[in-house]
Amino acid sequence: MRYDLTDFEWSFIEPVLPKGRRGQQPQNNRRVMNGIFWVLRTGAPWRDLPERYGPYTTAYNRFNRWRKAGIWDRLMAAVTKAHDGKVQMIDSSIVRVHQHASGVKKRVEIVVWGEAAEGSRPKSMRASTTKAGRSRS
Predict the structure, then answer these.
(1) What is the pLDDT of residues 51-81, one digit of tens each?
(2) Rounded to whole angstroms, how far apart are CA atoms 76 and 87?
């Protein structure tokens, strides 16, 4: 697919992955890694992982197992080494937004009804209209 690992990327990632573990051997690490990267890139919940990447539980469990074992740190070191240390990452926590892009102030809208008789009081009023009508003295 469009954002899946290329053969070049896989050539230096595959040797870093764990081997020789007890129990059933992983079937397709590349497919599962593409699934993990899909979830991390899109921000979607694990349950929304497309079927082409395998069961979402496999991707979730492998992501957590590798995090606890420090495999992701080794992978990042391999990626940096493969690109001669010329790797830049951008995290949304360091991206600043222009001061005017923070949003508009929230305002209370006051609706005036023209059909009400001038001398009659409304039987109920919205809280926003009662606060707006109070004097500030």
Answers:
(1) 999 999 999 999 999 999 999 988 888 888 8
(2) 10
Residues 13 and 74: their CA atoms lie apart, in Å, by: 9
Helix crossing, 29-42 with 56-69: angle to 10°? Answer: 90
Residue entry with tokens 């609706």: 111
Secondary structure class of 116 (helix, strand, coil): coil
Judged by DSSP in three states, 84 sits in coil
Q: Give the residue carrying structure tokens 């790797």.
A: 87
Cα 9 from Cα 12, distance rounded (Å): 6
Identity at 41, one-letter amino acid code: R
Note whether 17 and 5 are within 8 A (CB). Answer: no
Report which residue type is found at 62: R
